[in-house]
Each structure stands twice: as C-alpha cells, then as structure tokens.
C-alpha cells in the first residue's frame, strides 16, 4: 500500500542518518512518524456501539463491518466498546476510556452519543472523533457522518407499493423523532410515486425522551401483527434491534413481506425469516466508518459534516431476494435514476 511504502522509505532515511552518527533532523523524524498520515505507528481506532451492540443484524453490524474492513485492508488496530447501560454518563465514560487509551480516531455509532461526543471531544482536542447520524453541533475535531435515509426509504417505499397485493403497506419507526421521520417521509412518498392511492399505516415504538424503541422487538412484533391483521401486507421497520420482532410477525403470516433496514437483512436473517424479506433500505454505515478511518490515515483530521446519499453509494435498496424483487426492479431503478437526475426531490419530513 502507498502509505506503508512511504513509511518504509522514511524509516530507511532515518536509519541511514543514525548509522552516520547523526541525530535525524526534526523534519525527518516527523516524516518518519507521520508519513502519509500513518507512518511507523499503527492507527488505533476506537468504535463505540449504539444500543444493542455488534450482532443486531442492522445498524451496529454495518458499523462493525466498516471497522472489520479497515482492520483487514488498512491494517489498523481496532477495539470496540458496548454500553452496559443506556445513559449519557455511560457514553461519556466509554468515549473517555477510548481517548485516554490513545485511540484515534474514536467513532461513536448513533445520534444518542451527541452529548457525550461534545463533552469528550472538548477534553481531548488532539483526538479526532466521528459520530454517525448526528450533525447537531460542530467542533474542530468532530466529524459528523450523516445519510440521506429518505432517498433509500423512497426506493423501498416504491418497491413495497408495487409488490403489495392489498394496496396497503406499513411503516414502524423506532422513535418518533426527525431522524426516523426521514425514513417515514421517504417511504411514504416513494410508495405514492410508484402507486398513487396506496395506503400507508404508520406507528412508532416510543417517543422522546423515551428512546427504548430501538430495543423492544416484542412491541414491534405486536404492532406488525396488528397492521397485518388490518390488511397491510408489506411492513418496513426502521427500529434497530426491534426490527427482529417485526420480521417474525411477517414470517408467520403467509403472503406478506417485510422490508429490512440499514444492512441487507436478507443476507443475515435466519432461514425461517429470510424468504419473507422483500428488500432492505441499505444505509452504508460500513462505507462511512471505513472512509473516515481512511481519511484519518491520509491526514484528514478536520471536523465537519460528510453526507452519504445515492450519488455516493451511501444509501440504496437491496435486490438480494431476486425472485421477489425482479418483477418490480426495472420500475424502481427508473425512479432511482429520477432522483439521481434531480427530477425527483425526496421529502425529509412526513
């Protein structure tokens, strides 16, 4: 890799000078230590998971995939932390521990880390922090990684509407808040674009300050069952680990479909559930995490906002269940192109 080659050359230069009995010049020591962003020291990344941690088959697993890729391709050293309790104090503690251990960059997965990142980043100004799904504040050493979830949701909304036999589809959100309402807005608009007159049922698992909606699969299952009993035959759930309950409800009712979120859940679901997954709204948190680590290695340590959308392959929809999607894929891809061409502007509010 280029950065390793640069580091080796810098090391050779330093060794040659040392062999002549001379102390390397500061500029050469700096080159050896920071060549192309990585230099002779391995980058040590810290990743703090959102509710549920690795294994949620959704949001956290996407972030974990980005770190795994960086460990393999960029040869970084990466550690992960999972919350023992869902409090701001716990989040602060975990981020502070990573920073104190010399982890840099430190990546927080989820908007619930906003207060914690703001606090700890101020304490460690030489450490680069990144937060996924939040741009509510700015700091010189904080990078916000945000997504056009409404665009990906628009595509699965169109897919759901075109595939529905009853003309009734449903959306279940984790928490009724602006971030999740972007999913709802895109899903509903995409459905109505593809099939005017389609009916969309909407429900949420919790409302702030209650953020438990990302970890209550039983409640998601109950709501999905109610929707299905009312005639809904495609259910899109954007609720992290709670989505497992919704998937179970759909799998138990013949002739209905589930739409996954964040990761391609058709690829990770259990055999009894997989065939009921029509598509998933892909949110490339893996790409965002990997690219942020890559940017850090290349020397990009400045704060700011990085947005991932259809044009940057930051969001999309999955077609892994080819048998289910093939009949509608051409029309959905046509709608996707309209977004890319600017002919369609996807709403971000219901």
TrEMBL record:
<keyword id="KW-1003">Cell membrane</keyword>
<keyword id="KW-0732">Signal</keyword>
<feature type="domain" description="ABC transporter substrate-binding protein PnrA-like">
    <location>
        <begin position="48"/>
        <end position="347"/>
    </location>
</feature>
<dbReference type="InterPro" id="IPR050957">
    <property type="entry name" value="BMP_lipoprotein"/>
</dbReference>
<comment type="similarity">
    <text>Belongs to the BMP lipoprotein family.</text>
</comment>
<dbReference type="InterPro" id="IPR003760">
    <property type="entry name" value="PnrA-like"/>
</dbReference>
<feature type="signal peptide">
    <location>
        <begin position="1"/>
        <end position="18"/>
    </location>
</feature>
<keyword id="KW-0449">Lipoprotein</keyword>
<keyword id="KW-0472">Membrane</keyword>
<dbReference type="GO" id="GO:0005886">
    <property type="term" value="C:plasma membrane"/>
</dbReference>
<dbReference type="InterPro" id="IPR028082">
    <property type="entry name" value="Peripla_BP_I"/>
</dbReference>
<dbReference type="Pfam" id="PF02608">
    <property type="entry name" value="Bmp"/>
</dbReference>
<protein>
    <submittedName>
        <fullName>BMP family ABC transporter substrate-binding protein</fullName>
    </submittedName>
</protein>
């Amino acid at each position: 890799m280029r950065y390793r080659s640069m580091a080796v050359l810098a090391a050779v230069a330093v060794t040659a000078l040392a062999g002549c009995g001379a102390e390397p010049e500061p500029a050469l020591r700096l080159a050896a230590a920071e060549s192309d962003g990585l230099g002779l020291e391995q980058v040590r990344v810290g990743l703090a998971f959102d509710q549920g941690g690795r294994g949620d088959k959704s949001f956290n697993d996407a972030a974990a995939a980005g770190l795994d890729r960086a460990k393999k391709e960029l040869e970084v050293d990466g550690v992960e932390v999972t919350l023992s309790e869902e409090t701001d104090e716990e989040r602060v503690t975990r981020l502070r521990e990573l920073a104190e251990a010399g982890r840099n960059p430190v990546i927080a997965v989820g908007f619930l880390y906003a207060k914690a990142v703001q606090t700890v980043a101020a304490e460690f100004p030489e450490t680069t922090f990144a937060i996924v799904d939040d741009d509510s504040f700015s700091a010189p050493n904080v990078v916000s990684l945000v997504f056009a979830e409404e665009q990906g949701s628009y595509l699965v909304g169109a897919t759901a509407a075109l595939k529905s036999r009853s003309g009734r589809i449903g959306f279940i959100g984790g928490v009724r808040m602006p971030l999740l309402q972007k999913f709802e807005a895109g899903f509903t608009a995409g459905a109505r674009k593809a099939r005017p007159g389609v009916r969309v049922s909407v429900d949420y698992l919790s409302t702030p300050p209650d953020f438990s909606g990302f970890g209550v699969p039983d409640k998601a299952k109950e709501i999905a069952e109610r929707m299905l009993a009312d005639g809904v035959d495609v259910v899109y759930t954007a609720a992290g680990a709670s989505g497992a309950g919704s998937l179970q409800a759909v799998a138990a009712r013949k002739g209905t479909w589930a739409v996954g979120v964040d990761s391609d859940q058709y690829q990770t679901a259990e055999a009894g559930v997989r065939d009921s997954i029509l598509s998933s709204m892909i949110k490339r948190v893996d790409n965002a995490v990997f690219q942020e680590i890559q940017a850090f290695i290349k020397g990009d340590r400045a704060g700011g906002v990085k947005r991932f959308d259809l044009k940057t392959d930051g969001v999309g929809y999955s077609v892994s269940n080819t048998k289910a999607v093939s009949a509608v894929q051409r029309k959905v891809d046509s709608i996707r192109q309209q977004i890319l061409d600017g002919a369609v502007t996807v709403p971000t509010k219901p």
